[in-house]
Design a protein that fits this description.
The complex is a heterodimer of chains A (565) and B (277). By secondary structure, chain A is of the alpha/beta class. Chain A is built from 23 helices and 19 strands. The chains are: A alpha/beta (565), B mainly alpha (277).
Chain lengths: 565, 277
């Protein structure tokens, strides 16, 4: 790669690329007339919302386009070669050799039945000619695993993917991608499935590796926070067309296109919420006392089961009209907490007091009646709607289950759909006709149809594009005022917590490590763990995070993160 | 609607459907084409095919083989479909309870299912039919009773898959009652593979019925393909037509149902359907 480092010939050149979609799609081209270049030692971010065609470009580079989707014009040149002109052998040498790719979901991109060391080894064996000796390969695997920052590579190479955490799996993927010293690394949303702290580590790792080796990196993301952290240059895509491209600082500081500005503005800036609940009644609406839960995972006949502590004496209170954010990394037990309050997961010990009763003691009909007051919005809007149920029915079912007549419940459902920003006609359609953001609105309408007093939002906006996130958050903020909802907002994204919550609880390994008002936690965190989480917020340096300004009053004066720079 | 259109484009599925329709039509028009009962002796014994107006020949007692094959289609289809539905009813109920409630209920029901699976189906069927008098109803129930385990296992697996899906949990949080969650949310999402396996069960049920009749354990009042083969087997070297034509009928019907079932499976499986279109 030393040649590539010295020459400034681009490692990837995309010239006037157009990719056609099969007939009958929502647009004729996935990507139209896209041109850009990546030079050695350069990180180019491809930014856009889902459906903008950004992944299509990445797949086109390695000739991985799905059947029926073809390049109709333009050329792609990877390290001097045109992949579309390569035959089977040439393409195999290119993939994983000169150009390597890492994917969004690290679990599904590793073979679950093979030890990870073997999988890295395979990458070397497939490309190195003549094949190095086994001893040499083993050493290379060890070095690679060490380089990507995995602890104890000796032990780790013998592990199976399911034994690793999401971040560790992504590191293994990166080790595989690095195995043959590629000139180009393509990373397709490599951190979207990871929590903030892991995201930061992975981005830093990619950044370090490219400096060390002088590779070009094509990083695909929908988050301008990520762009601000790592990109040298940015290409903004919308509906398959390039809206704007330039150096990262140019685009971020002085966006030319209105769409780019929209995307940048949509990045949650961790501005502290200016709405604050006025607590009318002193007694809490919901009180959780000493909740405990340990998951036991069986490992084999002779090994003892692995124990995962999801809740270790969690106690919290929630007042009417108040929003409580529960933040933590994945595996900290925050989702389990929400599920235990909903009685979807049975706690081992503790009490959940609500409306004068302990929810844990309720069974059957009494539990059904109590559930009416507590509702939940799940993370994945695609999994949480029954694909065979019309949207109107999905919303009306709840009130109907408690005795409201069908006609009345449907009328209510239509009103609610309008309230969450959809049209009345949505009631007669099926979930697959809606986008992710629209589906999440439907889920919110469904939860609110029962007029609950407590709403639990379990990562309710994490699966959405940043721009859609902002809209859904605004809707939730409005609704909570309107309906005097008490809300538990579970999230790994502190920027979001800052914008919506009155109080924040920080969870780590099933324990509350910090608790306080949002301003307290964000401006004067007491725990190192909280500070780590805050530091990990993507784009923090660039956006200057007004939320962290010591003077809280200063915040109101700042219109957006851009102006603050 | 889209499913129907996709099926119409499925080549082997359509061949199966056409063949199956032919069998159904034969079963329906049997009394019109052959007004005389298939048990009636209408010609000389051992009449070869084509002679004496008997297209497919006569059997050892001079009964019309063609009439037997046509009337046999009614019996085979009726028993095949009715016993597959019986198997589906038993299997889906047991599988659904097992998959939804889990725990001890699941343990007991699945051990019971395994018990049924370890006994050879045909031996159990012979035992049951021989114990109760062979009649249309007992044969249907017997075949149903030996064919449900695969359906129960499939339903259980589908329920386990769907039980903790978020939309099911959302329905639970909405306060919907258990039976509504099961019938309204889980079953409709699990029904496609269940239908496919049920349609294939029809084919095995027809084979089971034929085998039972061959052993002389069929309903003595019904002319069935298996009975005809059983009756003709001793003379197969001098009068092949007595066993070959009913045998061909079984072969074609079972083939038709299998092709239809596979076509259905492809069309109902979104991943395969997408690849085809």
């Amino acid at each position: 790669m030393s040649d590539a480092m010295q020459s400034s010939a681009p490692v990837l050149a995309v010239d006037d690329l157009s990719i056609a979609l099969p007939k009958g799609g929502d647009r004729p081209f996935a990507v139209e007339n896209v041109s850009f270049e990546i030079k050695p030692n350069e990180v180019v971010c491809l930014v856009g919302e889902s459906g903008s065609g950004k992944s299509m470009i990445a797949h086109a580079v390695l000739q991985l386009l799905p059947r029926g989707v073809d390049i109709v014009s333009g050329t792609v040149t990877v390290a001097g070669q045109d992949p579309s002109k390569l035959g089977g052998r040439g393409l195999r040498n290119l993939r994983g050799g000169n150009a390597a790719m890492i994917f969004q979901e690290p679990l599904s991109s590793l073979n679950p039945l093979k030890r990870v060391g073997k999988q890295v080894e395979e990458m070397i064996l497939a490309h190195q000619r003549p094949a190095p000796s086994m001893v040499e390969i083993h050493e290379r695997v060890q070095t690679l695993l060490t380089q990507v920052g995995l602890p104890n590579p000796e032990l780790l190479e013998k592990s199976y993917p399911f034994e690793l955490s999401g971040g560790q799996r992504q590191r293994v993927m990166i080790a595989m991608a690095m195995a043959n010293r590629p000139a180009l690394l393509i990373a397709d949303e490599p951190t979207t499935a990871l929590d903030v702290t892991t995201q930061r580590q992975i981005l830093r790792l990619i950044d370090d590796l490219r400096r060390e080796r002088g590779m070009g990196v094509l990083l695909i993301t929908h988050d301008f926070g990520v762009v601000a952290d790592v990109a040298d240059r940015v290409v903004v895509l919308r509906h398959g067309k390039v809206v704007e491209q330039g150096t990262a600082s140019e685009v971020l500081r002085n966006p030319q296109a209105a769409y780019t500005r929209e995307l940048i503005d949509a990045v949650p800036k961790a501005r502290l919420a200016d709405i604050h609940a006025t607590i009318v009644r002193p007694e809490p609406l919901l009180e959780v006392v000493g909740l405990e839960k340990t998951f036991r995972v069986k490992r084999g006949w002779l090994q003892p089961p692995r124990e995962v502590l999801a809740a270790d004496g969690i106690s919290l209170t929630l007042h009417e009209g108040e929003t409580l954010a529960v933040v933590g990394e994945s595996g900290s037990g925050k989702s389990t907490l929400g599920r235990m309050i909903m009685r979807l997961t049975e706690p081992d010990a503790g009490a959940i007091r609500f409306g004068g009763a302990d929810l844990r003691q309720l069974r059957g009909e009494a539990l059904r009646q109590a559930r009416r007051q507590l509702q939940i919005v799940f993370q994945d809007p695609f999994a949480s709607l029954d694909p065979r149920q019309k949207v109107g029915d999905a919303i009306a079912r709840g009130p109907m289950a408690y005795g409201t007549s069908r006609a009345e419940a449907m009328a209510q459902a239509r009103q609610l759909l309008v309230r969450v920003g959809l049209s009345e006609t949505a009631a007669g359609r099926y979930p697959h006709e809606f986008s992710g953001g629209q589906r999440q609105r439907i889920c919110i309408a469904r939860a609110l149809a029962l007029k609950p007093r407590v709403l639990i939002a379990d990562e309710a906006v994490s699966a959405l594009d940043v721009s859609v996130q902002a809209q859904v958050l605004a809707l939730l903020a409005e609704l909570r005022q309107e309906m005097r909802l008490a809300m538990i907002f579970i999230t790994h994204d502190l920027r979001i917590a800052a914008e919506i919550a009155d109080r924040v609880i920080v969870l780590q390994r099933g324990q509350i490590v910090e608790e306080g008002t949002t301003a307290e936690v964000f401006t004067a965190p007491r725990q190192a763990y909280t500070r780590d989480l805050l530091d990990a917020i993507p784009g923090r340096d660039f956006f200057d995070q007004p939320g962290f300004a010591a003077d809280a009053r200063h915040i109101a004066g700042i219109e957006s993160g851009i102006d603050a720079v | 609607m889209e499913t129907v259109r996709a099926f119409l484009r499925h080549p082997s599925g359509m061949i199966g459907l056409v063949l199956l329709l032919v069998v159904v039509v034969v079963a329906i028009i049997a009394p019109i084409v052959f007004p005389v009962s298939p048990w009636e002796m209408v010609g000389a014994p051992f009449t070869p095919p084509g002679e004496d107006g008997l297209w497919l020949g006569g059997d050892t007692l001079g009964r019309d083989v063609a009439a037997g094959v046509a009337y046999g289609a009614r019996v085979s289809l009726l028993i095949g479909i009715a016993s597959a539905l019986a198997a589906m009813a038993i299997g889906v109920v047991i599988g659904a309870i097992s998959g939804y409630f889990g725990g001890k209920v699941d343990l007991v029901l699945m051990r019971m299912t395994e018990l049924f699976q370890t006994i050879p189906a045909f031996v159990l069927a012979i035992l049951l039919v021989a114990t109760f008098n062979p009649s249309l109803l007992t044969i249907i129930l017997t075949i149903g009773a030996v064919s449900w385990p695969p359906l129960a296992r499939l339903t259980r697996a589908e329920f386990l898959r769907l039980r903790h899906r978020e939309f099911v949990e959302a329905a639970l949080c909405q306060g919907e009652r258990t039976w509504r969650i099961v019938l309204g949310h889980i079953l409709p999402n699990a029904i496609s593979p269940i239908l496919v396996v049920t349609s294939l069960t029809v084919a095995t049920a027809i084979l089971l019925e034929s085998a039972l009749s061959f052993m002389g354990l069929g309903d003595p009042n019904l002319m069935s393909w298996g009975f005809m083969i059983g009756a003709g087997r001793t003379v197969i070297r001098n009068a092949w037509w007595m066993s070959v034509f009913p045998g061909l009928a079984i072969l074609l019907t079972v083939l038709a149902i299998n092709l239809f079932g596979e076509g259905l499976s492809d069309v109902l499986n979104p991943r395969v359907a997408r690849r085809r279109s």
